[in-house]
Design goal:
single chain; alpha/beta; inorganic pyrophosphatase (n-terminal core); Diaminopimelate Epimerase, Chain A, domain 1; 2 domains; 6-stranded mixed beta sheet; nucleic acid binding
């Protein structure tokens, strides 16, 4: 029995299923989590299906979370999507269920759970969930809302099909989801549009990015600057890809100071592998898209030096 059949068997066995994702969700986290929840609601109307995880940080046009009392975890199947490391699971009650399933597309550095399905070749966890649903057409039903969410997750994690993880199969799955007839144009506008204050922050990023001779870039966004632009950390996700539009940029870090003083680090690359850098600084992720943390500006400088070394080595290959 392959892993998909094992997961389906577990889903069929449990009457209550609670689905989690990672903290600070992006469209793929919500798309895979709530997309799966909607598939299961449509397929098994008698089951109790919940989505847990707290605030969705500006992505409420995609989905909202359920209030899940502690007692509901007893005897429940818990599924965690799009989350490589257990400390990043939003709402640590995920471990209180009777059985735990991990579904993810990040490198499997921590194979937590009773059943683990990881496909690092998938563009997104939403692609995996859609593929899972399409694999059992006689059992699993994809509603229009499920299709909308899964499509949003794929679009989000592929950068609108621009990133290298996009494959012909990704496009095939996305095409099948489009056939469900949700308003894709509206969804794409919602995913793309930014506020005026974030637009002004984007201008700051372009004006203040530092790029060395090998294409290593960095932008530091201190808390005082965020206050000046009246933006919060979750809104800075919109500027992370901007350095990649510059022709000479090869890999870069966006360093966002948090209210507690440390820096949230978003790393991106057009070639050099940067997830090993992230792992050395309390993070992880994909080879070309990762996240980490820096306790202070000294560690910010250290991370930037590692980005510089990665770019230099990449150029010399």
């Amino acid at each position: 029995m392959n892993i998909r059949h094992e997961i389906l068997k577990a889903i069929e066995e449990y009457d209550r299923i609670i689905i989690h994702r990672h903290m600070r969700p992006d469209p793929d986290a919500l798309g895979s989590q709530v997309g799966l929840a909607e598939v299961l609601r449509a397929s098994f109307p008698a089951k109790e299906i919940y989505q847990a995880g707290g605030p969705v940080e500006g992505l409420n046009y995609l989905a909202e979370m359920d209030e899940v009392p502690d007692e509901l975890y007893k005897g429940a199947l818990v599924i965690v999507t799009d989350t490589a490391n257990s400390p990043r699971v939003s709402d640590q009650r995920y471990a209180k269920g009777a059985k735990l399933i991990k579904i993810d597309h990040h490198p499997n550095d921590e194979p937590y759970g009773d059943l683990v399905w990881v496909n690092t070749k998938a563009s997104s966890c939403s692609e995996m969930i859609a593929d899972f649903a399409f694999s059992f057409p006689d059992i699993l039903k994809i509603s229009v809302e499920a299709a909308r969410l899964l499509y949003a997750g794929i679009v989000g994690d592929t950068g609108r099909f621009l990133y290298p993880a996009t494959t012909s199969y990704t496009l095939e799955i996305a095409g099948k989801l489009l056939d469900f007839g949700f308003d894709a144009a509206k969804l794409n506008r919602e995913l793309q549009q930014i506020s005026l204050k974030v637009a002004k922050l984007s201008g700051y990023v372009y004006e203040n990015i530092e790029i060395d001779d090998n294409g290593a870039g960095r932008v530091i966004l201190p808390q005082t600057l965020l206050d000046e632009f009246q933006v919060v950390d979750s809104e800075t996700s919109h500027v992370v890809s901007l350095p990649g539009t510059i022709d000479v940029t090869l890999a870069w870090g966006i360093f966002v100071q948090q209210p507690e003083g440390y820096y949230r680090v978003r790393l991106r690359s057009k070639g050099p592998v940067i997830n090993e850098i992230a792992k050395r600084h309390h993070g992880g992720g994909h080879p070309l898209a990762s996240g980490a943390n820096a306790k202070d500006l000294a560690e910010v400088a250290e991370i930037y030096q590692e980005i510089q070394a990665a770019c230099r080595n990449y150029r010399q290959q």
